[in-house]
Amino acid sequence: MLRIGLLTSGGDCQALNATMRGIVKMLYKNASEPVEVYGFEDGYQGLIYERYRLMDWADFSGVLTQGGTILGTSRTPFKLLDVPEADGVNKVEAMKHTYHKLKLDCLFMLGGNGSTKTANRLAEEGLNVIALPKTIDNDTWGTDMTFGFPSAIDVATRCIDDIHTTASSHGRVFVIEIMGHKVGWIPLYAGVAGGADVILIPEIPYDMDNVVAAIEEREKSGGRFAIVVVAEGAISREEAALSKKAYKKKVAERVKPSVAYDIAEEIAARTGREIRVAVPGHTQRGGAPDAQDRIFATQCGVEAARACLDGEFGVMVSQHNGEMRLVPLEDVAGKLKYVDPKSDLVREAKLLGISFGDE
Ligand code: F6P
Questions:
Q1: Which helix (H) or strand (E) holds 130?
Q2: Best substitution site from 76, 115, 137, 178 to test ligand 1's pocket, by max atoms within 8 Å of Cβ?
Q3: Which of 200, 271, 285, 336 has its CA 20 to 30 A from that of 112?
Q4: pTM given for the model
Q5: 331 among known catalytic residues
């Protein structure tokens, strides 16, 4: 009997179910022994508190196109891993206990950066763990792509497309806030796909003088409206120069719900233009996975299951230059993958006239 555990951890995304389907289908079809699947509920919480259900083939039928996660998810902050729960439970010991009690041969963990750190910790504690790179943010180190990212770009791009028509009708400047607190992959890709005029991402601190100049330049050249895409974590040069503590304090003190409103207010004051803000928010994590996501999720699932059958543990499935591979968990855990301000896409976008507010 091959006994495996599945859990989905951290913020959800569109292709979690598609990935789990890939794992389970591959194992059922290729394992030389019967397979028993334990699905842990709400991420690591299920492993800590023994909340799981025995699942089978049928549970993963018809879920390829279903967004969210059939297991539920939660965030278990890594920095609190060694702090006992209110009820005194030691999280690491509890997870090891559940794993051994169920006699698992492998735990598949679908999660982003923080969750991967926890997976690595469990691997260090001797559990057979295989991680799969989930996040709409695409910020996981060691892989060119994460599942969730393609669908999030699609949602964000559709939002920018829709705003275009109304911005054009009214001749307004729109500030659209796209997800990405620390990294700007979704705003960059959706901004280019949606034909934004300005894209502000955390990796490229902006100068408001440059943003205003870009909007005025567009108006002078006959553009009735302008689209400014800002990442949740867009940061000005002045803010970037602050200490981490001072910047956190500034963000916490924002009167408006998010950075887009601050930026919009400043643009309105300096240009005299009519401004509106749009925040697609969690729609970027919702709905069905797109075709590219389904394919990548399936590849991740199949490769993870193959690694399990081959006895390769303590790894994360990844894609590099179009090829699937395994990378050691300890090499990727907790490392963020940032947009390179000198990357081809940024350079090409600038050549097209898109402003990043830095020049
Ligand atoms: O990590 C994915 C993500 O959607 C980020 O882009 C966003 O900043 C954050 O999660 C939102 O978190 P929550 O769902 O806890 O509000």
A1: strand 129-135
A2: 137
A3: 200
A4: 0.96
A5: no
